[in-house]
Amino acid sequence: MSSSNRTTGTGRAVIRRPTAARASWLPTKIGGVLQWRPMPWCVSCNKFLTPSTVRPDATCPKCGNVVERGLIPGMTTRPANEPPPAVPWHLKLLGSALAVYLGYRFLQLVDWLMHR
């Protein structure tokens, strides 16, 4: 069983809230904006780790190397002054088709309600 769910002597599970150390990956509200905290990342294993699996000395439980916090190494973020990427044409087409279809279905509903 995991350390967060333990059974009592009666066989019933006791569910505990995550401690501050375990809940370090949960989003926090900073200045009224919800922001995600960085996840532990093991470079040698090439995978994200859950905060509860990282050892207290900040090493990976599988390989023993020091774990980094944050994004995948080499993954870049967009600078603040760069405009966001454009919406692809096929997504615009899909959105337009969905709007036409839902409009048609709405007209069918109105027609059905009027002739009921």
Task: Name the features.
1 helix; three-stranded antiparallel beta sheet; alpha+beta; 116 residues; 7 strands
Instruction: Sketch the topology as an H/E string, one letter per element.
Output: EEEEEEEH
What does the radius of gyration come to? 25 Å
- Helix proportion of residues, in percent? 10-25%
Strands, total number? 7
Q: From the helix content, strand content and strand pairing, which structural class follows?
A: alpha+beta
Mean pLDDT: 75
Range of strand content: 15-25%
Give the distance, in angstroms, between the N- and C-terminal Cα atoms.
58 Å
The major β-sheet equals:
3 strands, antiparallel
Give me the side-by-side strand order of the main sheet.
6-5-7
Write down the overall geometry: elongated
Stretches with pLDDT under 50, minimum 5 residues? 1-5
| Number of helices in the DSSP assignment | 1
Structure characterization notes:
With 116 residues, the protein is an alpha+beta fold. It has a domain at 35-70. 22% of the residues lie in helices and 16% in strands. It has one helix and seven strands. The chain has one helix at residues 89-114; strands at 5-7, 13-15, 28-30, 33-35, 40-42, 47-48, 68-69. The strands form three sheets. It has a three-stranded antiparallel sheet, with no helix packed on it. It has a two-stranded antiparallel ribbon with strand order 1-2. The longest helix has 26 residues, at 89-114. The radius of gyration is 25 Å and the shape is elongated. The model is unreliable at 1-5 (pLDDT under 50).
